Amino acid sequence: MKLVRFSTNGQHPRLGAIQGDRIADLQASLAATLTRRGVVRAGEIAAALVPTSTRAFLEGGSAAEEAIAGIKEWVTVPAASARLHAPISDPGKFICIGLNYRDHAEEANQPIPKEPPIFAKWSNAIIDPGEPILRPRGSQQLDWEVELEVVIGRTARFMPRTRRSTTSPATRSSTT
Q1: How far is CA 3 from CA 126, 151, 174, in A?
Q2: Residues whose CB falls within 8 Å of the CB of residue 52, separated by 6 or more in sequence, listed in order
Q3: What residues does 98 pair with on adjacent strands?
Q4: Residue 50 placed within a domain
Q5: Number of C-beta neighbours around residue 14 at 10 A
Q6: What is the model's pTM?
Q7: Which of 60, 142, 153, 169 could potentially form a cystine with 64 if both were Cys, beta carbons 3.0 to 4.6 Å apart?
Q8: 91 lies in a domain?
C-alpha cells in the first residue's frame, strides 16, 4: 500500500492509498465499511484509527493496520482530480547530516570533515509538491539537493546494526 496525503476541492488534506489511477480515502472507506457492519459512531472510530496525519496513522501501529486491512467499502477519487500534499507534514524532528560524501564537500569548496556536521531543519520547511520554493532575502542562489527521508516507526535507541526491521508490510511500503 502506498500512502499519500491528498485533498480535493480545496478540502483539508487527508490520508489515502493509491489504487491504480484512483486514490482511496482511507478514513471515509473505513467509516463506510464500519457503517455497513452496523457500527454506531463509525465516523468517529474511523477518524481515531485513520487520522489525517500520516505520522499519527503510523503511530497507530497494528490497530491502524488491521483496520485498513478490513476495509470492504472503498471510497475513491480519481488521482487526476486530487492534489497531493507532503507525505508527512508534522514530523517529530528532522536530523540532517551535511557534507556526508566527498564530492559534496569538494563542490562546496569545504574541507572533508572528520565527522559530518549534524544540524536540524524545522517542520515549516516542508512544502507540498509543486509549491514554490521561497528564496531567503539576500540570498543570491539556491542550491538543490536530493533528500532522503527515513520514517522510523518505533522508538529505537542503541540499536545493533544486525537488527532487522520488524515493521509491517503496510508501514514499510508507506515510506517508499
Answers
A1: 17, 13, 5
A2: 5, 12, 13, 14, 15, 27
A3: none
A4: yes
A5: 21
A6: 0.76
A7: 60
A8: no
